Amino acid sequence: MLLVETEGSYTSQIMLDSIDIHVGQSYSVLVTTNQPVADYYIVASPKMVNTPDSSNLVGVGVLHYEASTTPAQGPLPAGPDPFDLDFSVNQAKSIRWNLTAGAARPNPQGTFNVSNVTLSQTFILQGSLAEINRSIRYTVNNVSYRVPNTALKLADYYKNGTGTYQLDAYSANSSNPIAIDGTFVVSGAHNGWLEIVFKNNLKAIDTWHLDGFGFYVVGFGDGEWTPDMRSTYNLYDPVVRSTVQVYPGGWTVVYAYLDNPGMWNLRSQVLKHWYLGQELYIRVYDPDPNPAKERQPPSNLLYCGMVHRSFYSHTLFTISLCIYIYVYRER
């Protein structure tokens, strides 16, 4: 397979026999059909799990050559050792941006190179498992996200968050002393470069996704991250994507340019982790009312929770129905 693209970014073209695709990620590959006319197996198998070929965790497809009368046969092709994380990390580091492809540059300097940018902020975010009120929860810096009764953007726009969340109430650089639940919202500097260090305290591979932005994947490592690790970053041709993996006991670092005002969700893409609280929001605020940056609320906006609206000079208020779907959480 010739790797050519991931999540909207052209990559340096490298030939691969197998490729790790983590939760929420996507890739494009080219396959040259230059083998004898026959049918060939295509196999997808999980990481960090021992699975026989007959397991329902193994997906099997067939690449069928036109006019082939030879079915795919024999044992399934063997992939890499599912527990060999060194293989996975080395492959991840080899996926870089194609500097010669004719495509739009995503950062304001009009270049792929981020070696000369000035960082405005650094977030150090650790995903972990905790027990809160006798329930198993996933956390970011020991805070498990609590969904408020009022949509964050409504509360932010009309009430500056009052009664719904407190901006920067929880640290984006260190873990809370005890595991708690709370509405985790942090400030992001508009038009600033943000360094995010994702740390994985779990026993499984995690993936993180940021709404509203692509980010530059600049580094992977084992053990504890320290500022000295910046010397190991790839700042020359890091690939830009929106979802990145973090290996067990390790860290991953991304750079994001916060040029898009709004209230943006940063979360684990592993559904169990996300559902049980491993997420937060980054508030990127721009006081400029220019609608080209962020449009005003539409006239037919539905209100809910703590936000309601009076019409004209009447004293009547419309209180729109807020629909919440409550899913039973096992305790």
Which terms would index this structure?
single chain; 331 residues; mainly beta; six-stranded mixed beta sheet; five-stranded mixed beta sheet; disordered C terminus
Sketch the major β-sheet: 6 strands, mixed
Structural class: mainly beta
Cα-atom radius of gyration: 23 Å
Kindly estimate the percentage of residues that lie in beta strands according to DSSP: 25-35%
Shape: globular
* Count of extended strands: 20
Helix percent band: under 10%
Low-confidence runs (pLDDT<50, min 5 residues)?
A: 310-331
Describe the 3D structure.
With 331 residues, this protein is mainly beta. It has three helices and 20 strands. Strands 7-6-11-16-13-14 form a six-stranded mixed sheet. A hairpin with a 2-residue loop joins β6 and β7 (135-140). The model is unreliable at 310-331 (pLDDT under 50).
Write the layout of secondary structure elements.
Blueprint: E1 2-6, E2 9-15, E3 28-30, E4 39-44, E5 59-64, H1 85-94, E6 119-132, E7 135-140, E8 143-145, H2 152-159, E9 180-182, E10 185-188, E11 193-200, E12 206-210, E13 215-222, E14 240-241, E15 243-246, E16 250-257, E17 262-268, H3 271-275, E18 279-284, E19 309-310, E20 317-318
Structure in a nutshell:
The chain contains three helices and 20 strands. By secondary structure, the protein is mainly beta.
